[in-house]
Amino acid sequence: MTTSSFAPPAERLEQVRAFMNERVLPNEHILDQENDESDALVAKLRDEVRELGLWAPHVPPEAGGTGTGFLDYAYLNEQIGLTVWGQLIFGCQAPDAGNAEILHMFGTEEQKERWLFPLVAGQIRSFFSMTEPEVPGSDPTTLRTRAVRDGDDWVIDGHKWFSSGAEGAAFGIVMAVTDPDAAPHARATQIIVPADTPGVDVVRAVPTMGHRGRGWSTHCEVRYTNVRVPVTNTLGAEGTGFLIAQKRLGPGRIHHVMRWLAQMQRAFDLMCRYSLEREAFGEPLAKKQTVQNWIADSYVEIQACRLMTLDAAHKIDAGDEARVEVSAIKFFAAKVMNDVIDRAIQVHGAKGLTDETPLAHMAMMARGGRIYDGPDEVHRQVVAKRILRTFADGDGWHFQ
Ligand SMILES: Cc1cc2nc3c(=O)[nH]c(=O)nc-3n(C[C@H](O)[C@H](O)[C@H](O)COP(=O)(O)OP(=O)(O)OC[C@H]3O[C@@H](n4cnc5c(N)ncnc54)[C@H](O)[C@@H]3O)c2cc1C
């Protein structure tokens, strides 16, 4: 299998590449400020993206986007992901993209009108509220947030954190236990909660690695106290919270990896260029075998990630859940991204830690990739368990 067997959406890809290079990357220093000026610039660039017909490439036109499948989206993300701001400017930012997908798949007509279409149009933002500080996010069957039926309402009580983007969002999708006596994976339900419902308290944006964030880029602690929403806000059927979470997180993980490929490419470019420019001990760094090893290892690892990502995207487009492929690429690509950025920083010496290259910011953003949407260890476990099951069933794992 080669990448050439998966044709990229050539024309759109070129448009996205040009827009990133001409309009987004030259303005990255403004976007990074996360203030009123950067908010205004994001709004302006979003309008330009809409005018170009490139808006919301993660969902199809019937959901309000311009999407044409996972594979095409993988290629576009290799440009959009060059900076963390790309996803916001193209209207496909996490967690809204994943929330849009599950509203599109499981929402009622009324829920789509009220939440999905304004969300995809970029008129409102949302958050996904599952992880809790008191219990392991890796094992969400331990969640404690409760939703109890009272007439035609749910009454929700609980404590969440890492509800990304909750600051300033219009609504959240909250994962709550609705039947504690059910089988572990049938206990929880996803419920749409408008952020202005009495009892919803966005307590604080939790700073991560020295970064507080602003609005979309925050990771918030949220308390739900006696929060009352109509039962019609249930997303999908009662007790299907885990099933829907799987539908959301599977593709969501691939979305992350697609953008990480862009981060890898950017770090790789910076490493190679600087190693040719910078001289130490009478020769360019590029002549040192250690640096050559870093470049060669990075090439091999990035190319492996690309091929694995395109393969997984292709399988998802063909209707396969690709659970092994998605988990494999999630933990592998997270490590490669962190390693390549770290090597690029090392080649730059002290400069690599300054804000004179994007590398320090990239490293800060990259570290979470080994934790969110499931830590590396859990994804390794998924891969191994599923492969071993095929052997236990008397068959075996067939690479394809
Ligand atoms: C930047 C960022 C954004 C996030 N955004 C959201 C969001 O929008 N909504 C949301 O609900 N959550 C979000 N999260 C939370 C994220 O999904 C959880 O952090 C993740 O599921 C891990 O849960 P935990 O942090 O409670 O770690 P724990 O489950 O407590 O695990 C701690 C560590 O234990 C180890 N471990 C766990 N299980 C195993 C195992 N089976 N084998 C070996 N070792 C294991 C791993 O090393 C793991 O890192 C975000 C997290 C980050 C970092």
Structure, described:
There is one protein chain. This protein has helices spanning 10-24, 28-31, 36-51, 70-80, 85-89, 96-106, 109-120, 241-277, 289-317, 323-348, 359-367, 376-392, and strands at 126-129, 146-150, 153-164, 171-177, 188-194, 200-205, 219-230, 234-235, 279-280, 283-284. By secondary structure, it is α+β, with helices and mostly antiparallel strands. The protein has 3 domains: 3-106, Butyryl-Coa Dehydrogenase, subunit A, domain 1; 126-235, Butyryl-CoA Dehydrogenase, subunit A, domain 2; 243-392, Butyryl-CoA Dehydrogenase, subunit A, domain 3. The strands form 3 sheets. The chain has a 4-stranded mixed β-sheet with strand order 1-4-5-8. A 4-stranded antiparallel β-sheet has the order 2-3-7-6, with no helix packed on it. The chain has a two-stranded antiparallel ribbon with strand order 9-10. A hairpin with a 2-residue loop joins β2 (146-150) and β3. α1 packs parallel to α4, α8 (241-277) runs antiparallel to α9 (289-317) and α9 (289-317) runs antiparallel to α10 (323-348). It is globular and about 80 Å long. The chain starts with 9 loop residues before the first helix and ends in an 8-residue tail after the last helix. The mean pLDDT is 96. Flavin-adenine dinucleotide (FAD) binds next to β1, β3 and α12. Residues 95, 128-131, 136-138, 162-164, 219, 368, 371-375, 377-378, 381 line the site of flavin-adenine dinucleotide (FAD).
